[in-house]
Specification:
Layout lengths: L1 E5 L6 H12 L3 E3 H11 L2 H12 L5 H12 L8 E4 L5 H13 L6 E6 L2 H9 L1 E4 L5 E3 L18 E2 L6 H15 L1 H9 L2 E5 L4 H15 L2
Parallel strand pairs: 1-3, 1-4, 2-3, 4-8
Antiparallel strand pairs: 5-6, 5-7
Bound molecules: BIS(adenosine)-5'-pentaphosphate (AP5).
The site of BIS(adenosine)-5'-pentaphosphate (AP5) has 35 residues, from α1, α2, α3, α6 and β6.
Length: about 220
């Protein structure tokens, strides 16, 4: 199955992606995670991406698209994938469509996580991420047993640089301007399904899996 998760910053895309991908036995391809991993290891790609990410702007399409195309060509993505954070604008969506068409493939479903603005702010300001395994926590909604330490692997938890208040505000504006038009684009393609992404994480996962079953061809 080939799935795209879309939704504003903090909607829970990364949180849901880990459960859905594991349930469907497909790889999760998160452009934000790939960029962050390149930033932390100091690669050329990381150096190119960092200034945009720190500001909360989108990394230029030519950089992002090349990275996704090479990731989707890997063996583990041949039977399906779940994209988290890509596409992020209509040109990226068109490029993805063409890339898949070149391989005689197409997307099955675009799942939109619907959450209101205030909830997004609450989620982003309390988010903590494990430096070692990438597991996402929340200091109030999904706290680890020991503050600052990941329950899964014992790694150190950190707050993302782009989760500062000003940057959050800018990321939300970027979402409205550049990513929101994707909702109409995919609705017109007939593969968009929105789900309520509020409430406990497990409830959102259940809603997502029900939605995905409806689109399995
Ligand atoms: P990216 O990492 O994709 O950031 P984002 O889209 O802003 O999304 P987030 O990771 O902030 O939020 P999320 O929806 O994954 O929420 P999460 O699950 O963590 O991108 C970062 C940057 O990289 C971009 O700004 C850009 O510069 C660049 N980039 C990436 N892709 C790009 C592209 N395609 N083109 C160009 N540039 C690109 O959850 C948030 C918090 O809420 C967590 O603490 C979690 O525990 C909590 N939570 C989750 N679900 C619930 C729930 N149901 N109830 C209560 N709390 C919950």
């Amino acid at each position: 199955m080939r799935v795209v998760l879309v939704g504003p910053p903090g909607a829970g895309k990364g949180t849901q992606a880990q459960f859905i991908a594991s349930h469907l036995s497909i790889p999760k391809v998160s452009t934000g995670d790939i960029f962050r991993s390149n930033v932390s290891t100091g690669t050329d790609l990381g150096r190119k991406a960092k200034e945009y990410m720190d500001r909360g702007d989108l990394v230029p399409d030519e950089v992002t698209v090349a990275m996704v195309a090479s990731r989707l060509a890997e063996d583990d993505a041949q039977a399906g994938f779940l994209l988290d954070g890509f596409p992020r604008n209509v040109p990226q969506a068109r490029t993805l469509k063409q890339l898949l068409a070149d391989w005689s493939l197409r997307l099955d479903i675009v799942l939109e996580l619907v959450v209101d603005h205030d909830e997004v702010i609450r989620r982003l300001s309390g988010r903590r991420t494990c430096r070692q395994c990438g597991r996402v926590w929340h200091i109030a909604f999904d706290p680890p047993t020991r503050s600052g330490v990941c329950d899964e692997c014992g790694g150190e938890l950190f707050q993302r640089d782009d989760d500062r208040e000003e940057t959050i505000r800018h990321r939300l504006e970027v979402y409205q301007l550049q990513t929101q038009p994707l909702i109409t684009y995919y609705a017109d393609e007939g593969i968009l399904l929105g789900i309520d992404a509020t409430g406990p994480v497990e409830d959102v996962t259940d809603r997502a899996l029900v939605a995905l079953r409806r689109f399995t061809r």
